[in-house]
Amino acid sequence: MPKSKENQKSYWRKNLQTLAILLTIWFIVSFGCGILFVEELNQIRIGGYKLGFWFAQQGSIFMFILLIFAYVYRMNQLDKEFDVDEE
Which residue numbers delimit the Sodium symporter small subunit domain (predicted)? Predict the structure, then answer.
């Protein structure tokens, strides 16, 4: 963990900010595209399936996996910034 109390608080604040942003993106994709905007998205077809259906069934899962990789990347950046990386 960062050495001073202020660095610890800053590190934790940036971590929570990153989580909030990523969870907001996931919510928009899963709830927004899969439920709220499904009728508009169903006008588009991919591989014979309506896009709204695809987002509800597959898209939110794929987005969650991409967000996991984004979180790992961002946390590695934060670890280096606050000199708590494993290297």
Answer: 8-85
The pLDDT tens digits for 61-86 are 898 999 999 999 999 999 999 888 77
| Strand ranges in the chain using DSSP code E only, listed in sequence order | 45-46, 49-50
- Measured in degrees and rounded to the nearest 5, phi and psi for residue 43 equal -70, -20
pTM beyond 0.70, yes or no: yes
Of the candidates 16, 36, 27, the residue with the CA atom closest to the CA atom of residue 64: 27
Please check whether residue 35 is in contact with residue 57, taking contact to mean a CB–CB distance below 8 angstroms: no
For residue 54, count CB atoms less than 10 angstroms from its CB and return exposed for 0-12, middle for 13-18, buried for 19 or more: buried
